[in-house]
Amino acid sequence: MNIYERERERERERERERERERERERERERERERDEDLIMFHFSHIRKTALPRGHVF
């Protein structure tokens, strides 16, 4: 393998690593969105099931 082939191989490896990092970032973003959705669902559920003001047991 000559120096040019090695350099091309290194560049391909760097590009694969960049793509893996982009995919990890997309996955983290999906997790954040899912977490936000769960939190919003949780609080909307609390509001819907809350007792009315002045309620006495």
What does this structure look like?
It is rod-shaped and about 85 Å long. With 57 residues, the chain is mostly helical. The model has no long low-confidence stretch (mean pLDDT 87). It has one helix spanning 3-49. It has 1 helix and no strands. Helix content is 82%, strand content 0%. It starts with a helix and ends in an 8-residue tail after the last helix.
Write a concise keyword list for the protein shown above:
57 residues, mainly alpha
Short description:
The protein has 1 helix and no strands.
Q: Which helices and strands occur, and which strands form pairs?
A:
Blueprint: H1 3-49
Largest sheet: none
**Overall body shape:** rod-shaped
Beta-strand proportion: under 5%
**Portion of residues in helices?**
over 70%
User: First CA to last CA: what distance?
Assistant: 82 Å
Count the E strands: 0
Mean of residue pLDDT?
Answer: 87
| Tally of contiguous helical segments | 1
If you compute it from the alpha carbons, what radius of gyration comes out, rounded to the nearest whole angstrom? 25 Å
Low-confidence stretches: none
What structural class should be given to the helix and strand makeup?
mainly alpha
SSE succession: H
